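dumping this here so i dont lose it
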């Protein structure tokens, strides 16, 4: 999947290549949402990914091929057509052995997983991602990591959109053998909530903007690293 990198680095530049050539740059991307078993609501925050897709079109030169999210299981034949998949929810996550193996293969081949705890999936996510990568630790990222300093600057790590348990927002990750971050997990941040339509959670504009900017940074990192 490293074949994506040179072209996608170009189309993420803030110079609008579509204007230069009179047509949208190719290839584009659709944002994939990861479906999982276990009973958790993998489908939560239904307006968040369409809103993120619109923000990518408005704020970057990335050509998004569709606004609607693409829903993918780890076994989906189209998984490898998506350089990044997103997952969130409140409840339990469960991967089959075959799903864990395929997700591992996809990520080691150059894919990227952005997991966002929607308050309630933390214990389950940590358990299942350990099954995917039993040989690799889920580590808290330092504030200096490039994912916090891509298009937008987050000197203190992920923004905190909603308050839960009086805990700070944190970002964790798993790296491949070359030091590439291939799993990014936001905890106590509620990025997905901040991406939803304004009337869903009544979040103030500044918090919604912070969620949007953090998510754009994640996409930028996933496609250029």
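and the seq i came up w/
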């Amino acid at each position: 999947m490293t074949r994506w990198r040179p072209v996608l680095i170009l189309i993420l530049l803030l110079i609008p290549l579509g204007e230069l050539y009179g047509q949208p740059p190719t290839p584009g991307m659709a944002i994939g949402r990861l479906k999982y078993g276990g009973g958790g609501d993998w489908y939560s925050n239904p307006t968040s990914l369409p809103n993120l897709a619109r923000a990518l079109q408005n704020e970057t030169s990335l050509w998004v091929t569709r606004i609607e999210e693409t829903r993918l299981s780890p076994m989906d034949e189209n998984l490898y057509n998506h350089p990044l998949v997103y997952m969130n929810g409140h409840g339990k996550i469960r991967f089959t052995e075959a799903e864990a193996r395929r997700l591992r293969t996809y990520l080691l081949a150059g894919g990227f997983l952005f997991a966002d705890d929607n308050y309630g999936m933390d214990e389950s996510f940590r358990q299942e991602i350990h099954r995917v990568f039993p040989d690799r630790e889920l580590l808290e990222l330092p504030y200096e990591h490039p994912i916090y300093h891509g298009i937008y600057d987050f000197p203190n790590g992920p923004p905190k959109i909603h308050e839960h348990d009086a805990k700070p927002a944190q970002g964790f990750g798993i790296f491949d053998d070359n030091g590439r971050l291939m799993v990014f997990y936001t905890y106590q941040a509620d990025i997905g909530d901040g991406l939803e339509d304004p009337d869903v959670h009544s979040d103030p504009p500044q918090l919604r903007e912070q969620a949007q900017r953090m998510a754009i940074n994640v996409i930028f990192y996933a496609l250029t690293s």
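The beta strands are 32-34, 70-72, 84-89, 112-117, 139-140, 170-175, 181-187.
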